[in-house]
Backbone:
C-alpha cells in the first residue's frame, strides 16, 4: 500500500481495496439485504450482509448458531455488541468507479445456493422455491430477449421513417416511409419503383415542382435542416438527461463485464434516452451505425430486469453473467445474427463466460431474433439485414484479391484506430470537449452538405451496403448494374460478364469519392456526444472498396480472358466474377481490422447475408485483416477507448513477458512510509476514525500487532465507516474511546471502560496472499483469472505490502512505455 499521503492520490484516483475470499466455508456471508430497490436501479454493488459472528464455527455446532452473539453481560461490564447480528444496509456493497471482488461474489452465490438446496428437502414450499430459483435465469433471458427485440424493431422502423423524412413526406399518412408509401400505389413501374404520386419531395410540396435548380436547392436545404434538427435533438437530450447514452457503449460494457462499476451506465434513464437519441442520430445522416449502441440498449434492459430477481439483484457476479448474455442479444437484434451474437459476446466483450451463460445467451438471442422477425422491421419477411443471392461459385485464384482486401481492411483498421484516438484525445484536452453540441452540429452540417450531391452518400448507409452487396440482374435499375446487355438472352438466369456502361464508370467515380469521405468523416464522428456505432460505417468502407475491386476484376476478366490468371476457368460468355461478393468480403475485412474479431465476424457476415458458401473467402479476409492490423498495433478500437478513458481493464489477450517480482511492484516502496494497518485488538474507535480521515485508502490489512505484523485478515474502509456509524446510532455508550475487536472472543473489560465494538464479522479471514518473490507474470495471471481487486504480500508469514489491480495496470503501462497515470480508476 503506497502510504505517501493523499496528495498523490486525487479523489478519482483512490486506491480501492476490498475483500477477497478463497475458502467459501469460513466466510459466514449471508444473502439477506435491506437495500432498497430504488438504490439499485443503476449498477450498484450487490449488498453483502453477515448474520453470524463466528467465521470459524467450532466443530459439532450448527453453522451460524453461535451462542456468544448479540448483547452480552460480561462481569458487570456494559453489554458487548456484535454489530452484525442483523444485516446492516450498505455493508459489503461497492462504491461508484470501483471493481467488484469476483471471489467474494461467487462465494456469496455458492452459500446462497447451498442454503436453498438444503432447505428444499425440508418442505414442499421450499422445494417450489428451489425450482423457481433454478428457473429464474431462463425466465430472465426470455424477458430480455422479448424486450430487446421489441425495442430494436421500434428503432429500425423509426430510423427508416425519419431518414426518409429528410427527403419528403407521404400524403397518405406522414407516418409511412418512402417504401411503404409506394407499396400500395398502382402507378409505380418496376424501373422507377420509388416514384409514386403519394410520395412528395419537399421541393414539390413547397414550390410545386421537382425539376430545375430551385427544386434541387430546396431539397438540399431541407435535407441539411432536418439533419441539423435531428442531431441537435440527439445531443441535447444526451447532455441534459443521460450523459452515459453517448458513444457506442461497447468499451464500457467490456469494462463493466470485467467487474468495474459505473453507476447509472445501465440505468433506466440511459435506456430511454439512448433508444430515442439512437433513432435521431442515425436519421441525421451522420456516419454512424446503430449496431454497437443496440448492445448497450440490450444490456440496459438486462440490468433493469435483473432487479425483478433477488438472485441477480444482490450479486454483482451473477448480474455480469446476465449482461454477457445481453451483449449476445444486442448483436442478435442488430444484425439478425443470433449465433454470431453469442460468439461476439464470447470472443469480444465477456470477461467471465461459463458454459451455462453460453446456453442462456443462445436462448436469449433466439428469443430476441424471433421477436424481431415477428415485428418484421425490414418489410421483407427476412431476419437478415442484407440478403444476397449470388449465382456463381468463387474460384481458388480469387483468393488473391480477397487477401488484398484483407490487407486493405487491416491497414484501414489500424489507421482508423490511431486517427480516432488522436482526435478523441484532442477532444479531451482542448476547447472541443467543452462545446459538444457545437461539435455535433458542425460535423452534421459538413456531413449533410458534402453527402447530398452524391447519391451514394445521401442514402442511408444500410441501403448503400445493401446495394453494394447486390448481384446485378437484368431488371436492376441501379447505376452499378448499367452494363451493355446487347448479347444477353432474356431467359438466362446466370448473366455472363459484360462490358460496363457509362453509368457504371460514373458510379465508380462517385463511390471512390464516397469512400474517401466515409473514411475521413467516420474518424471525427465516432466518439461524439451522440449514440454512435462503428459496425455499419466500417462495413460501408469495406463494401465500397470491395465493389470497386470487384468491378475492376470483372472488366479485366471480360477484356483479358486469355490471361494466365483467367485461362481455364473464365471462358468468354461465362459469369466468372461477382462484384457483390467482393463487396461482402471487403466489408468483413474492414470491420475485422477495426474490431479485431475473427470467428464471430465470419459467422455474423454469413448470417447477415445468407451467403453460406462464401465462408472461406470471408475467413481468409478476416484473418489477413487481423494479422495486418495487429502488426501495426495490437489494440482493437474498443481496447484503445478503454485505455483512453483510464478504465481498470486487465486485457486477457496481452502477454506479460517481463521478469519482475511481486516485491518490485508492491506498495509501500522502500522510500515510502510504513504500511497503514489495523491491529486485531489494540485500537479504539477514535484511532480507526483518525486512520480513515488521514488516508484515502479503501481497505486496511488487519494484523496481530504492529510488532509481529502477522496477518489476520482484511477490512474495507467503506464497511468500517458504515459499521461504526451504525453502532453509534444503535448502541448507547459507543464513543471514541471504545475499543474495537477483530478477535473471535473478547477479553473482559474494566467496569469503567465504555462498551467495546466487535467487528470480526466484516473482516475477510482469507485474503489472497503471495510471497514477495512470486514472479509478476504469475501475479498478473492470478488477477486475471480470479478477478482480484488486491493481493497482500508476505515474507516468512509477516505482512510486507499490497498489490492492487491499479498497481498492476500501472506496471504494465510503464513496461509498454505508456503514461502510468493514465489509469484513473481502480
Residues:
Amino acid at each position: 500500500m503506497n502510504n505517501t499521503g493523499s496528495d498523490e492520490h486525487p479523489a478519482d484516483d483512490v486506491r480501492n481495496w476490498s475483500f477477497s475470499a478463497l475458502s467459501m466455508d469460513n466466510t459466514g456471508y449471508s444473502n439477506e439485504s435491506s437495500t432498497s430497490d430504488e438504490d439499485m436501479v443503476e449498477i450498484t454493488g450487490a449488498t453483502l450482509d453477515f448474520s453470524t459472528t463466528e467465521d470459524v464455527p467450532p466443530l459439532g455446532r450448527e453453522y451460524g448458531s453461535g451462542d456468544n452473539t448479540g448483547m452480552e453481560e460480561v462481569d458487570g461490564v456494559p453489554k458487548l455488541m456484535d454489530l452484525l447480528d442483523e444485516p446492516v444496509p450498505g455493508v459489503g456493497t461497492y462504491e461508484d468507479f470501483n471493481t467488484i471482488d469476483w471471489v467474494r461474489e461467487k462465494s456469496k452465490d455458492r452459500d446462497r445456493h447451498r442454503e436453498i438446496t438444503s432447505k428444499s428437502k425440508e418442505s414442499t414450499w421450499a422445494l417450489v422455491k428451489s425450482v423457481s430459483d433454478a428457473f429464474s435465469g431462463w425466465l430472465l433471458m426470455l424477458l430480455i430477449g422479448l424486450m430487446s427485440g421489441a425495442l430494436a424493431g421500434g428503432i429500425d422502423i423509426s430510423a427508416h421513417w425519419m431518414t426518409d423524412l429528410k427527403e419528403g413526406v407521404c400524403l397518405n399518412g406522414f407516418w409511412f416511409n418512402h417504401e411503404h408509401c409506394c407499396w400500395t400505389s398502382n402507378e409505380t413501374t418496376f424501373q422507377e419503383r420509388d416514384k409514386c404520386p403519394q410520395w412528395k419531395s419537399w421541393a414539390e410540396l413547397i414550390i410545386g415542382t421537382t425539376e430545375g435548380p430551385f427544386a434541387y436547392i430546396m431539397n438540399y436545404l431541407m435535407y441539411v435542416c432536418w439533419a441539423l434538427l435531428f442531431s441537435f435533438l440527439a445531443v441535447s437530450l444526451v447532455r441534459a438527461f443521460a450523459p452515459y447514452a453517448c458513444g457506442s457503449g461497447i468499451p464500457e460494457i467490456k469494462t463493466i463485464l470485467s467487474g468495474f462499476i459505473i453507476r447509472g451506465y445501465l440505468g433506466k434513464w440511459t435506456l430511454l434516452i439512448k433508444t430515442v437519441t439512437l433513432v435521431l442520430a442515425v436519421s441525421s445522416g451522420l456516419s454512424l451505425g446503430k449496431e454497437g449502441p443496440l448492445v448497450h440498449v440490450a444490456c440496459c434492459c438486462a440490468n433493469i430486469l435483473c432487479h425483478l430477481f433477488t438472485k441477480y439483484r444482490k450479486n454483482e457476479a451473477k448480474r455480469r453473467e446476465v449482461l454477457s448474455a445481453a451483449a449476445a442479444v444486442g448483436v442478435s437484434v442488430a444484425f439478425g445474427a443470433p449465433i454470431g451474437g453469442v460468439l461476439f459476446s464470447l470472443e469480444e466483450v465477456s470477461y467471465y463466460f461459463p458454459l451455462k451463460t453460453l446456453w442462456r445467451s443462445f436462448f436469449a438471442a433466439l428469443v430476441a431474433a424471433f421477436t424481431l422477425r415477428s415485428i418484421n422491421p425490414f418489410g421483407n419477411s427476412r431476419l437478415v439485414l442484407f440478403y444476397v443471392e449470388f449465382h456463381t461459385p468463387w474460384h481458388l485464384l480469387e483468393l488473391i484479391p480477397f487477401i488484398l482486401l484483407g490487407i486493405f481492411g487491416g491497414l484501414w483498421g489500424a489507421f482508423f484506430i490511431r486517427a480516432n484516438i488522436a482526435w478523441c484525445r484532442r477532444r479531451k484536452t482542448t476547447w472541443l470537449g467543452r462545446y459538444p453540441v457545437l461539435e455535433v452540429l458542425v460535423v452534421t452540417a459538413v456531413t449533410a452538405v458534402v453527402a447530398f450531391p452524391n447519391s451514394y452518400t445521401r442514402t442511408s448507409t444500410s441501403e448503400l451496403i445493401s446495394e453494394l452487396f447486390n448481384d446485378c440482374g437484368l431488371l436492376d435499375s441501379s447505376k452499378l448494374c448499367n452494363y451493355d446487355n446487347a448479347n444477353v438472352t432474356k431467359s438466362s438466369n446466370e448473366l455472363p460478364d459484360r462490358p460496363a456502361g457509362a453509368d457504371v464508370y460514373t458510379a465508380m467515380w462517385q463511390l471512390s469519392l464516397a469512400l474517401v469521405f466515409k473514411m475521413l468523416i467516420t474518424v471525427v464522428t465516432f466518439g461524439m456526444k451522440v449514440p454512435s456505432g462503428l459496425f455499419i460505417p466500417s462495413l460501408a468502407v469495406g463494401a465500397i472498396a470491395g465493389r470497386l475491386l470487384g468491378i475492376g476484376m470483372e472488366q479485366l476478366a471480360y477484356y483479358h480472358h486469355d490471361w494466365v490468371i483467367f485461362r481455364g476457368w473464365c471462358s468468354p460468355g461465362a459469369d466468372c466474377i461477382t462484384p457483390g461478393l467482393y463487396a461482402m468480403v471487403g466489408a468483413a475485412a474492414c470491420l475485422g481490422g477495426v474490431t479485431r474479431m475473427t470467428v464471430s465476424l465470419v459467422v455474423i457476415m454469413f448470417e447477415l447475408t445468407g451467403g453460406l458458401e462464401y465462408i472461406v473467402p470471408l475467413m481468409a479476409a478476416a484473418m489477413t485483416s487481423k494479422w495486418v492490423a495487429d502488426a501495426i498495433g495490437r489494440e482493437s478500437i474498443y481496447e484503445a477507448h478503454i485505455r483512453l478513458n483510464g478504465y481498470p481493464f486487465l486485457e486477457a489477450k496481452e502477454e506479460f513477458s517481463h521478469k519482475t517480482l511481486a516485491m518490485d511492484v508492491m506498495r509501500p516502496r522502500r522510500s515510502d512510509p510504513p504500511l497503514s494497518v489495523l491491529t486485531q485488538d489494540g485500537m479504539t474507535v477514535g484511532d480507526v476514525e483518525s486512520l480513515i480521515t488521514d488516508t484515502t485508502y479503501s481497505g486496511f490489512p488487519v494484523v496481530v500487532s504492529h510488532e509481529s505484523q502477522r496477518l489476520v485478515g482484511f477490512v474495507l474502509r467503506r464497511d468500517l465507516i458504515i459499521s461504526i456509524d451504525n453502532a453509534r446510532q444503535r448502541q448507547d455508550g459507543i464513543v471514541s474511546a471504545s475499543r474495537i475487536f477483530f478477535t473471535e472472543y473478547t477479553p473482559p473489560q474494566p467496569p469503567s471502560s465504555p462498551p467495546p465494538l466487535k467487528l470480526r464479522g466484516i473482516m475477510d479471514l482469507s485474503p489472497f496472499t503471495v510471497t514477495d518473490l512470486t514472479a509478476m507474470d504469475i501475479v498478473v495471471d492470478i488477477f486475471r483469472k480470479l478477478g482480484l481487486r488486491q493481493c497482500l504480500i508476505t515474507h516468512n508469514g509477516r505482512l510486507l505490502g499490497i498489490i492492487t489491480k491499479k498497481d498492476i495496470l500501472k506496471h504494465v503501462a510503464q513496461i509498454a512505455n505508456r503514461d502510468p497515470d493514465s489509469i484513473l480508476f481502480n
Residues 124-165 form the longest helix (42 residues). Residues 1-81 have pLDDT under 50 and may be disordered. The first strand starts at residue 72 and ends at 74.
